[in-house]
Amino acid sequence: MSNIQILEMDSQLLEGVGSFCLRSKKKSNGYINKNKWLNTQFEEGLKYVQLIENKKQVGFIEYTESENSSRVVFAANYLVIHCLWVSENGKGYGTKLIQKCIQDAKASSKSGVVVLTNPETSWTPSKEIFIKNQFKQTETGPHHFELLVYPLKPNDSLPTFPTNWEERTQKYEGLTILRSFQCPYVEIATENIKTAARTLGIDVNIIDLKTREQLMELAPTPYGIYSVVFKRELISFHRLTVRTATKRLRELM
After folding, report:
1. CA dist., res. 213 & res. 72, Å (int)
2. 183 with 225: CB under 8 angstroms?
3. Which keywords does UniProt give here (predicted)?
């Protein structure tokens, strides 16, 4: 019989168990930066919950209050889900983790729960599991981003995206990477862009988004934590291979 445990991480548990993503490369900069970021965010109320079955990690969910979120969305008094991942579909893992978040939102008298999805990338959770758990899509954003909401207080305002996305990209003529270490794969994604840029003789400007205020003002997509802009055009909001990055940059030179 399976023994399933929901484990809410803290700094002490993180040191022993570690974060889920990139756990096979615990000495990598991406993994180290993610764990540092988690320790800082635990102090701000972030929840990083792992699902353990028979002593094996089979999934996790990460969420926090909107004022500390790494997603570019106006969502006062909501919880915002950053990530959801499970090792196998059809086991109910995702639903268990989502329901944990919803219960926390209810216990904290939140207006609801928000999540960002995008069918064009695996860097956001899949939409289907949230629809199954009674989330409703309330808005669409640029580059196929979707805003899904589980409302708990029908009279409260629904979350919204900013509307000045094009204005944000116009700030960056040179090759610019805007990033946060909320995701451990940001380090790899950054290095791939830098390698492609060196091949083409292009200088790279990196902006580390260290505060919620910076992210809400500067990030050119709802995803927030990773964007590559060149010649005032968005190149990517997720990891590209060196070959693909080189091709996209060359097309704009």
Report:
1. 10
2. yes
3. Transferase
The pLDDT of 93-118, averaged and rounded, is 97
Question: For the chain, which residues make up each domain, given as ranges?
Answer: 4-151, 165-252
One of 3.40.30.120, 3.40.190.10, 3.50.30.40, 3.30.470.20 is the CATH number of 165-252, namely 3.40.30.120
Report DSSP state, residue 157. P
pLDDT in tens, 150-205: 999 989 999 999 999 999 999 999 999 999 989 888 999 999 999 999 999 999 99
19 or 210, which is more confident: 210
What residues have CB less than 8 Å from 181, skipping those under 6 apart?
Answer: 30, 33, 34, 36, 37, 187, 225
- Quote the tokens at residue 78: 């909501």
Rounded distance between C-alpha atoms, residue 150 and residue 166, angstroms: 28
The fraction of the chain above a pLDDT of 70, given in percent, is: 98
pTM listed for this prediction: 0.93
Facing residues of 227 across strands? 178
Q: Which amino acid makes up residue 71?
A: R
Q: Determine whether domain 4-151 maps to CATH 3.40.630.30.
A: yes
Q: Are 159 and 149 in contact (CB under 8 A)?
A: yes
DSSP tally for the chain: helices H, then strands E:
8, 11
